[in-house]
């Protein structure tokens, strides 16, 4: 079970990182709750995700041409 304190703290940091927009507290709370739950699942070894993009394996993002 996740604690509201962990979610609240992470939601705050998400809010700050997005420039402190108003009216998006539910979005920030849901995102933080998802992130906390995923981290707890990762720590317990239960990392089955329902997001198909997360199950494709590790890939590096394409880097821009430096020439």
UniProtKB/TrEMBL annotation:
Residues 42-51 have a biased composition (Low complexity). It comes from the Bacteria. Residues 36-67 are annotated as: Disordered. This is DUF2934 domain-containing protein. It comes from Cellvibrio fibrivorans.
């Amino acid at each position: 079970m996740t604690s509201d304190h962990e979610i609240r703290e992470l939601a705050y940091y998400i809010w700050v990182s997005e420039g402190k927009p108003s009216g998006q507290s539910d979005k920030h709370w849901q995102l933080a709750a998802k992130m906390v739950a995923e981290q707890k699942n990762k720590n317990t070894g239960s990392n089955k995700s329902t997001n198909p993009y997360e199950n494709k394996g590790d890939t590096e993002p394409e880097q821009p041409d430096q020439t």
